[in-house]
Design brief:
By secondary structure, the chain is mainly α. It has one domain (about 5-230): Up-down Bundle (Glycerol uptake facilitator protein). Helices cover about 70% and strands about 5% of the residues. The protein has ten helices and two strands, in the order αααααββααααα. It has helices at about 5-25, 30-45, 50-55, 60-70, 75-100, 125-150, 160-175, 185-200, 205, 210-230; strands at about 115-120, 120-125. It has a two-stranded antiparallel ribbon with strand order 1-2.
Length: about 240
């Protein structure tokens, strides 16, 4: 399969993820169950549609884990991440166009649970609020990517069930993470809404976007390292 086709599949998959799942979050008033299921079910749908083309990463945190595991080359990693970011912007732009409002597209922000104080003017955040949000995203991404690495490991022949397991894992981390950070675990999914919301005048997500980019990437790398240690399978060749 050519790299262009893989990148195109990643772009389409990420666009669908952001448009549908973030769309559910926005129109449902951030109903935790509905939003969690939306993210999980989109992954299931995409896994069984573009999975045979690109592997259905649709998330830079997943791609960096696969790169660390030597399952993809540097050129593939760069192409995948670029395609995922473009796809996220396409999905966010479509959502904003249909809503006729770009100020609420599902961008991540630190939630009241992690705030030092809730005031009439909003949330009062301190240093721990940011540290805790970062750590939450690292842990959630670690859990999500570990599930992906386990179910897609060719040594264990569980590939037929990969879409269901990965979708279930994403649903799981959303159920716990929505109350802390809105659950990112995906830099592309968070960057695009943050930028478009900021253009519309809502800057909170963009001001915190470093968390939603760096923490999931750290979680992905950590998962790749730990999985390699646990399985003793650190020397997989690039496919």
């Amino acid at each position: 399969m050519s790299l262009f086709k893989k990148a195109l599949a990643e772009c389409i998959g990420t666009a669908v993820l952001v448009f549908v799942a973030c769309g559910v979050a926005v129109v449902s008033g951030v109903n935790w169950v509905a939003t969690s299921l939306a993210f999980g079910l989109v992954i299931v749908a995409m896994a069984y549609s573009i999975g045979n083309v690109s592997g259905c990463h649709i998330n830079p945190a997943v791609s960096i884990a696969m790169f660390v595991r030597k399952k993809m080359s540097l050129n593939e990693f760069i192409a995948y991440v670029c395609a995922q970011v473009v796809g996220a912007f396409v999905g966010s732009a479509l959502l904003g166009a249909f809503l006729r409002d770009f100020s609420a597209l599902g961008g991540n922000t630190i939630q009241a649970t992690l705030a030092k104080e809730v005031t009439l003017g909003g949330l009062k955040l301190d240093a721990w609020s940011y540290v805790a949000a970062f750590l939450v995203e690292v842990v959630l991404t670690f859990i999500f990517v570990m599930a992906i690495l386990g179910v897609t490991d060719s040594k264990f022949h569980d590939g037929k069930h990969a879409g269901l397991v990965i979708g279930g894992a994403l649903t799981l981390v959303h159920l716990i993470g929505l109350g802390f950070t809105g659950t990112s675990v995906n830099p592309a999914r968070s960057l695009a809404p943050a930028v478009l919301q900021a253009i519309a005048g809502e800057t909170a997500s963009l001001e915190q976007v470093w968390i939603w980019i760096l923490a999931p990437l750290c979680g992905g790398v950590l998962a790749a390292i730990v999985y390699g240690i646990l399985t003793g399978n650190n020397k997989e060749k690039t496919e």
